Structures are given as structure tokens and as C-alpha cells.
């Protein structure tokens, strides 16, 4: 297990190093002069030169990269060009918002996906299965933007049940927070739920056809006991994998959802910082996002071995 | 088990009542305004965004202010400035007993400090606006004297904007270039907090000299970029005032009967900037010959101008809510030439001009546009109209910052772009039209025109300036045509009918002094 962990950690570190290079060069490949964006259309050459000098934009790229990485390793990701707030402080404000949104949407997704997926697999080729598949198709094909606007028009404009947008921190006003996060979490969770439901269904169908499940039935166990005690644990392993892989999509979805519901999270931060060519902020935010993604996948890999000891053993055997 | 249902229903009802009552209670003392964009740094010296000026309006007053008719009147100054020495000395008397929002006095020394800061601070966006100022002297506690290098009549309008905002020297010294994170000026409201991309909150100032004008304890400016979402928030009551209502939504809001829709012609313009000689980059790079008929033959540009029906363009692209125009000076400006009539569409003449220019079989060029639905709509209407006269325009949608770069570098033939406008016409013209000026991306140059525009800066008599601008506009808008002016953007603001006292000013900034719930 230790060797397996070390191997996974080493891969993660290399991945992060590669990501840092991609992020840094990628940001500089975006057309548009950040000094021009900062100074606005009225800027003269002297003003632009002053800005470029202040943010070291005239130094050679390798020098800029090494300076950035050196500071990043010490936890200093620089300062937003636009607001003069440190990137770390900005991210510290935004990250909890998107983490909360992501957690709530995963909750929504799991609440939809697991029961519906299991039911669909257990009642394969019945009306329940067809209904579940249709629901899943709807979840996958309805655009988040459209669904979000429709929910606002129905629940906020027409019925006045929920606030249309905004965010209040959970610790300041828990009820206000939940009422504001309900719609964004639902919109973000629906697509993820549809993906996970399909995966749950397929995986459960496969598990329900295995020998040990047949053995369980032949020993006289009832259907519910077989599903919940024996099938579901193995059936959920691929679902956990997909959940980990979907975190990237979740972040992408958060960009749209946060725009619709005016949630001041990471997604809006990324979009705004790209449009305003706020280099330090774009780099910091993307690096943190990528790190989170790598970390989540590391945790997913570790969770496999906890869910299924055979993976752990195989990993150890391979290492040996 | 059965008892649970009524309990659940009661809890849901209670929750609903709390949720419904909460906004109503908050509404009494807090006004929520939705803006379409997050301002940049809230420092009058470093700021550059239009929306930032809306925040400053509430908490950073200026030496001078403009009214609904674009007339300038004293705000923190006691009177209009006294101009002497042939226009080279400007003496400003200040209003007595004014305090910054940290309780420190706003006096001549503070004004000198602020103007010095605008002129000398690294990265200042006000420096070019104040470049005519040679020295700033404190005459007494409430009098400041500016010595100018040359007479410069647009200075008064400049002091009615961010360059005229005094900042608290105590706060500015303490925070340096981070002043914008906790700005302290003079205003009916003072800065409380900012959550980037979410909201900016200001509260009533205890130090403001006229306590009767701030009717709300708090103002919350929420940042909602999407027009549809902003509108849905207005309808749901989550916001009280919506800035920049889409023209196509304005008519619907009026029909609903619950909202006031304020629509005022702005002081900016939208048009097509045609690259004439920008081959190697904008000034100070030297101009070069592009070798295209669009750049070199004024008849081609005139033909393009004549192919556009400005009224129809406004009707189709903006639901008739904006104001057609053909000059950089808005019709609401005191400097507007009321006698000028815009050219009407004349496809036959346009075709003849194209034929005379040797393009009888049609002429193709590429038009760069900012990649958003509104600009695409305008561009497609222009494309369609121009096609009838023989122009084949291909559209090049480009992200805003990249488009600015392309235009600066001269990598475009024509660019559909506007200018938010300033009160004094000089700021809408001089930097775009004079030889070697910093915003002259088309590299157009006519020394005769420069003489007229420089003269218009020196004289202070409005009638004389109107006459000079008429001559200048004849030269650049109706002869050279390096910018084809199409319309003036209108500022549409909507709010519930129970909100009273809002007065729209053509700069489009929201001013909330005296605004209250009925």
C-alpha cells in the first residue's frame, strides 16, 4: 500500500510540474496585451511601459516562469492586477463557494443517480428502466443555461419561492445560503446525475450477472439484500471513477452555473480573469484548479483500494 | 406518522413567509443596483472602467458635476473656476466645512495632494487628462490655483470626472497603491466592502455635509453580467434597479406597467473605424501605405457611408431605442451642431462612387467586430445594407482585448467599435483624429485639421467652439471618413415605479442622491 501511495504521489508531482508549464505558456499565448487591457483604451505608450515594467512583463519568459514557480512554491501566487488583492486571498474567498456548490451538486447527483440507476438495473427492460433512461437523456441534453433561466423564471419571478441569484456565506445565514444554492446545485447536479445514473445502471447490470450474485440468490437471499449487501459495493466502483473524472466537467459546469445564478465562485473568477488578462490570477486559479483535480484523482485511486482490496494487492504485486 | 404532514406544511409556510418578508424589510433601507460588469480598482487615480464611475458617483464626489442637460456646476468647489491670464490660470474656490469620509478636512491642501497624485503616481490613468497642468498652488485653506502650460478649455469637464475627485490624503498615504481596496473620499455614502465579481457595498456617511440627500442606509451594487439574468432579478425583486437594460427588453418592461424605464441618449458614439495608414502599429509608429481602395480612396469610404441607413440600423439592431447619428458629438451635448443633417441612404450614388473608384464589380473587405451578440447583430445589418451597394463585407468576430490589439497593430481593415464619450467634445475627437494621437489607430493625419482642433481646446467661448468643431467634423467625418459614425448608445435604466427621484444624466451614470422609495 505504501509503495502504491508513493508511486501515485510521484505521478501527481510530475503532472503538476507539467501543468505549471502549460498554464504559464498557455496564458501568454492568449492574444491581447495585459498592459493594454489594464490601462484601457486611453493609455499612452509611457503608461503602458510603466505597467509592463511593474509586472515584469518585459522579462524573458523563462525568467518570468522561474520567478512565478519560485514564489508559488512558497505559497505566493502574486497579486491580482485588477483588484490588487493577493491571488491566494482571492482564491480563499472564492474556493469555499465553489466547493460548497460542487458538494451540493454531487449530493443532488448522487441522490438522483444511485436510486434511479439501481432501480433501473434491478428492473431492467421494464417501464421503470425506460423511464429512468429517458430522464437520464433529458438530464444530459438540457443545456444548463436554459434550465437555469427557466428555474429562475418559474421559482423566482413567477412563484417567488427562491431568490433568483446571489450568495450569502453559510456561517452568516445558513437558511439564506441554502435557498440561494438550491437552484445552482440542482442545475449543476442534473447533468452529473444523468451521467452517474447511466454508469450506475450499467455497472449494476454487470455485477448482478456475476457468479457470486447468483450464488447469493441460490442461498435464498432476497433481492433487496443481495443488491444492498453484495452488489452495490462492487457496482459503485466505476461510479466513483466517473465521479472523479467528472470533477473537471463539474468545474466547467460551475463556470456557466455561477454566471446564471451570480454565484461569486471560482468559475466566474476564471472567466473574468481571462477576459481582463489578469495573468497572475489566471495562472493561480488554473494551477489551483489543476492541483485540486490531481488531488481528487489521487484520492479516487486511493479509495479504489479501500473499496476493493484486490486493486491494492495487484498494485503491490506489480510494484514487487 | 400522520401528524408529520401538517407540521411539515406549517414549517414550509413559515419558511415561505420568512423568505417573502426578508426582501421587503431589507428594501426599506437598502437599495440594490445591478451592474453588468465588475469595476476595476476603486481608486480615482488608477481606475479606468465605466462602471467604476457609477460607484464613485456615490462615494467620491468631484470638484464639478454635470446635470441632466450636461451643464457643469460646482459640487465640492464653491463656484465655477475663475479663468485668467489668457486661459493659463484657473482658480478654484472650495466649498467650506467639507470632510472626507474618515472625518479629515477636504481643503485646498487635500485637493493639491489629490491632483499631484493623479499627475505623479505610477500607473496613473489621469496623467494624460491633466497633462496641461503645469503647477498646483494652494492660495489659502479653500483656494487652489492651477497654472496651465497652454489654455485648455476641456479642463473643467475633466475636473467633473475622476481627475476632479479629491481623495483623503491620510487614507491615500496609509494605503498607497492599495487605496482602491478601501477608498476614502467625500460622498453621501462611504465604502464598506467589496467581494470581487459579486458586490460592492457602501453605507451612509456620517461626515457628508448634506445629510438629507442620502435616503438609503446602504447601497449594494451587484455584478450580474448577463442581461437576461439581470432582468430576471429585477422581475423577481432581488434587485431594485437595473443598469443597461437591453433595448429589446425595454418595451416589454414598459408594457408590464410595474417598472419605470429611463432612456437617455448617451454622450458616446458607435461607428466604424477604417484603417487608413496603420501598417506598422498605431502612433508613435510611422504610418504606411496599405494599398487598398478602402484605405486610399475616399470615394470608396463615401460609398460605404451612403450605403448605410442609420435610422433602419437603429430600428433593426436596437429596436429603435438608440439615437442615430453621424458625428462624434451626441445631439444632447451643448456642443452639438443642431443644423447638421446626417446623410440619407443613397444606394445609386454609392454604386456610382464605387464605379468611379474602379470597383464597379463590387468591393470586398473584412470588418472586425467585438464578439458578442449585439455587435454581431449590428454588423450583420451593416453587411446586408452595404451589400446592396456592392460591398462584400466579411465579418471577423474577435474577443475584445484581442480586437484592441489587432487594431493597435494595424492588422485590420475596419473595426466596428464605439467610445463611451465624455462631456467635453475634445475627449471624443482629439485623441482619435489628430496626427500621431495615442488613440488614432487609423493613422489618419491632416495638419489643417489639427490646427482647428488645437484652437478648439484653447478658446473657452462655447459658440466659437461649436463653430470650430463644425469645421473639424466637416473635414474628418464628411470628407476623410476615417471613422463612420452610426449612432449614439442610449442608457436604459429600469426600476420599480415606487422608486422616486431618479434623474437620468446623458453620461449614463447612476446618481442616487435624493432617490427614495415612495
Work out the helix count of chain B. Answer: 16
- Main sheet of chain B? 6 strands, mixed
Runs of chain B with pLDDT <50, length 5+? 1-11, 13-26
Radius of gyration of chain B over all CA atoms, rounded: 25 Å
Report the span from N to C terminus of chain A: 11 Å
Q: Over the alpha carbons, how many angstroms does the gyration radius of chain A reach?
A: 24 Å
Low-confidence stretches of chain A: none
Largest interface: A-B, 52 and 54 residues
Shape by Cα distribution of chain A? globular
Largest sheet of chain A: none
**Approximate shape of chain B:** globular
Number of DSSP E strands of chain B: 21
Helix segment tally of chain A: 14
What does this structure look like?
The complex is a heterodimer of chains A (320) and B (518). Chain A is mainly α and 320 residues long. In chain A, 79% of the residues lie in helices and 0% in strands. Chain A is built from 14 helices and no strands. Chain A has helices at 2-29, 34-39, 45-54, 61-73, 87-122, 127-141, 144-158, 174-208, 211-218, 223-235, 237-261, 266-275, 279-307, 309-319. Chain A is globular, with a radius of gyration of 24 Å. Chain A starts with a helix and ends with a helix. The model of chain A has no long low-confidence stretch (mean pLDDT 83). Chain B has 518 residues and is an alpha+beta fold. Chain B is built from 16 helices and 21 strands. In chain B, helix 15 (447-458) packs antiparallel against helix 16 (462-480). In chain B, 51% of the residues are buried. Chains A and B meet through helix 2, helix 3, helix 7, helix 8 and helix 11 of A and helix 1, helix 6 and helix 13 of B.
Question: Which helices and strands, and how do they pair?
Answer:
The complex is a heterodimer of chains A (320) and B (518).
Chain A: H1 2-29, H2 34-39, H3 45-54, H4 61-73, H5 87-122, H6 127-141, H7 144-158, H8 174-208, H9 211-218, H10 223-235, H11 237-261, H12 266-275, H13 279-307, H14 309-319
Helix pairs in contact in A: 1-13, 5-6, 5-8, 6-8, 7-8, 7-11, 8-10, 8-11, 11-12, 11-13, 12-13, 13-14
Chain B: H1 4-29, E1 30-35, H2 50-59, E2 64-66, E3 72-74, E4 82-84, E5 89-93, H3 108-120, E6 133-140, E7 143-148, H4 155-158, H5 169-175, E8 189-195, E9 199-204, E10 218-223, H6 227-236, E11 241-242, H7 247-256, E12 259-265, E13 269-274, H8 293-296, H9 298-306, H10 310-318, E14 323-324, H11 347-356, E15 363-370, H12 373-388, E16 391-398, H13 400-409, E17 414-419, H14 426-433, H15 447-458, H16 462-480, E18 483-488, E19 490-496, E20 499-500, E21 516-517
Parallel strand pairs in B: 1-10, 1-11, 15-16, 15-17
Antiparallel strand pairs in B: 2-3, 4-5, 5-7, 6-7, 8-9, 9-10, 12-19, 13-17, 13-18, 14-18, 20-21
Amino acid at each position: 500500500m505504501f509503495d502504491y501511495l508513493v508511486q501515485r504521489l510521484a505521478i501527481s508531482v510530475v503532472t503538476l510540474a507539467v501543468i505549471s508549464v502549460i498554464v504559464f505558456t498557455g496564458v501568454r499565448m492568449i492574444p491581447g496585451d495585459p498592459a493594454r487591457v489594464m490601462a484601457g483604451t486611453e493609455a499612452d505608450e509611457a503608461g503602458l511601459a510603466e505597467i509592463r515594467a511593474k509586472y515584469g512583463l518585459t522579462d524573458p519568459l523563462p525568467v518570468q516562469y522561474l520567478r512565478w514557480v519560485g514564489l508559488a512554491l512558497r505559497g505566493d501566487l502574486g497579486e491580482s492586477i485588477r483588484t490588487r488583492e493577493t491571488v491566494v486571498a482571492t482564491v480563499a474567498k472564492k474556493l469555499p463557494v465553489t466547493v460548497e456548490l460542487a458538494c451540493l451538486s454531487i449530493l443532488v447527483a448522487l441522490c438522483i443517480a444511485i436510486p434511479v440507476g439501481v432501480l433501473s438495473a434491478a428492473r431492467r427492460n421494464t417501464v421503470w428502466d425506460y423511464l429512468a433512461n429517458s430522464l437520464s437523456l433529458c438530464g444530459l441534453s438540457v443545456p444548463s443555461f436554459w434550465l437555469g433561466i427557466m428555474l429562475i423564471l418559474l421559482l423566482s419571478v413567477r412563484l417567488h419561492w427562491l431568490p433568483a441569484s446571489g450568495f450569502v456565506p453559510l456561517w452568516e445565514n445558513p437558511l439564506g445560503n441554502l435557498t440561494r444554492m438550491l437552484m445552482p446545485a440542482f442545475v449543476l447536479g442534473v447533468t452529473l446525475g444523468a451521467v452517474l445514473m447511466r454508469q450506475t445502471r450499467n455497472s449494476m447490470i454487470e455485477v448482478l450477472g456475476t457468479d457470486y450474485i447468483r450464488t447469493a440468490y441460490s442461498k435464498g437471499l432476497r433481492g433487496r439484500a443481495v443488491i444492498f449487501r453484495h452488489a452495490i459495493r462492487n457496482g459503485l466502483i466505476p461510479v466513483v471513477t466517473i465521479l472523479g473524472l467528472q470533477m473537471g466537467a463539474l468545474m466547467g459546469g460551475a463556470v456557466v452555473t455561477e454566471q446564471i445564478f451570480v454565484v461569486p465562485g471560482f468559475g466566474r473568477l476564471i472567466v473574468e480573469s481571462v477576459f481582463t488578462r489578469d495573468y497572475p490570477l489566471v495562472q493561480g486559479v488554473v494551477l489551483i484548479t489543476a492541483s485540486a483535480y490531481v488531488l481528487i484523482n489521487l484520492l479516487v485511486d486511493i479509495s479504489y483500494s479501500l473499496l476493493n482490496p484486490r486493486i491494492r494487492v495487484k498494485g503491490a504485486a506489480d510494484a514487487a | 406518522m400522520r401528524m408529520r404532514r401538517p407540521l411539515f406544511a406549517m414549517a414550509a409556510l413559515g419558511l415561505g413567509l420568512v423568505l417573502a418578508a426578508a426582501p421587503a424589510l431589507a428594501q426599506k433601507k437598502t437599495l440594490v443596483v445591478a451592474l453588468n460588469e465588475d469595476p476595476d480598482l476603486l481608486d480615482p487615480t488608477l481606475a479606468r472602467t465605466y462602471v467604476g464611475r457609477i460607484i464613485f458617483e456615490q462615494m467620491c464626489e468631484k470638484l464639478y458635476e454635470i446635470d441632466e442637460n450636461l451643464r457643469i456646476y460646482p459640487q465640492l468647489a464653491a463656484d465655477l473656476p475663475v479663468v485668467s491670464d489668457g486661459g493659463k490660470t484657473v482658480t478654484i474656490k472650495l466649498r467650506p466645512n467639507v470632510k472626507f469620509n474618515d472625518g479629515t478636512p477636504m481643503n485646498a491642501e487635500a485637493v493639491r495632494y489629490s491632483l499631484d497624485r493623479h499627475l505623479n503616481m505610477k500607473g496613473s490613468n489621469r496623467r494624460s487628462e491633466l497633462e496641461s497642468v503645469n503647477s498646483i498652488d494652494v492660495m489659502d485653506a479653500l483656494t487652489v490655483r492651477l497654472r496651465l502650460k497652454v489654455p485648455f478649455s476641456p479642463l473643467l469637464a475633466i475636473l467633473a470626472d475622476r481627475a476632479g475627485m479629491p481623495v483623503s490624503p491620510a487614507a491615500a498615504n496609509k494605503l498607497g497603491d492599495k487605496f482602491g481596496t478601501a477608498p476614502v473620499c467625500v460622498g453621501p455614502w462611504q465604502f464598506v466592502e467589496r467581494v470581487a465579481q459579486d458586490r460592492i457595498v457602501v453605507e451612509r456617511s456620517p461626515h457628508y455635509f448634506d445629510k438629507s440627500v442620502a435616503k438609503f442606509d446602504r447601497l449594494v451594487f451587484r455584478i450580474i453580467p448577463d442581461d437576461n439574468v439581470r432582468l430576471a432579478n429585477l422581475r423577481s425583486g432581488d434587485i431594485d434597479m437595473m443598469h443597461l437594460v437591453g433595448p429589446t427588453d425595454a418595451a416589454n418592461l414598459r408594457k408590464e406597467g410595474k417598472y419605470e424605464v429611463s432612456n437617455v441618449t448617451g454622450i458616446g458614439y458607435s461607428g466604424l473605424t477604417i484603417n487608413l495608414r496603420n501598417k506598422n502599429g498605431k502612433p508613435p509608429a510611422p504610418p504606411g501605405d496599405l494599398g487598398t481602395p478602402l484605405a486610399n480612396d475616399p470615394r470608396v469610404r463615401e460609398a460605404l457611408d451612403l450605403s448605410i441607413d442609420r435610422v433602419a440600423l437603429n430600428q433593426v439592431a436596437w429596436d429603435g431605442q438608440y439615437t442615430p447619428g453621424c458625428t462624434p458629438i451626441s445631439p444632447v451635448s451643448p456642443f452639438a451642431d443642431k443644423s447638421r443633417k446626417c446623410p440619407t441612404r443613397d444606394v445609386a450614388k454609392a454604386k456610382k462612387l464605387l464605379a468611379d473608384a474602379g470597383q464597379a464589380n463590387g468591393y470586398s473587405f473584412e470588418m472586425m467586430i467585438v464578439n458578442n451578440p449585439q455587435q454581431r447583430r449590428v454588423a450583420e445589418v451593416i453587411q446586408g445594407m452595404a451589400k446592396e451597394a456592392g460591398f462584400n463585407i466579411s465579418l471577423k468576430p474577435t474577443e475584445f482585448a484581442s480586437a484592441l490589439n489587432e487594431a493597435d497593430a494595424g492588422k485590420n481593415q475596419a473595426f466596428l467599435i464605439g467610445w463611451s464619450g465624455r462631456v467635453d467634445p475634445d475627449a471624443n475627437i482629439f485623441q482619435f483624429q489628430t496626427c500621431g494621437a495615442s488613440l488614432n489607430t487609423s493613422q489618419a493625419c491632416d495638419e489643417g485639421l489639427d490646427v482647428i482642433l488645437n484652437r478648439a481646446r484653447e478658446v473657452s467661448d462655447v459658440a466659437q467652439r461649436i463653430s470650430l468643431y463644425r469645421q473639424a467634423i466637416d473635414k474628418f467625418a464628411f470628407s476623410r471618413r476615417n471613422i463612420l459614425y452610426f449612432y449614439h448608445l442610449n442608457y436604459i435604466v429600469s426600476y420599480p415605479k415606487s422608486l422616486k427621484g431618479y434623474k437620468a444624466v446623458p453620461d449614463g451614470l447612476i446618481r442616487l442622491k435624493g432617490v427614495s422609495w415612495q
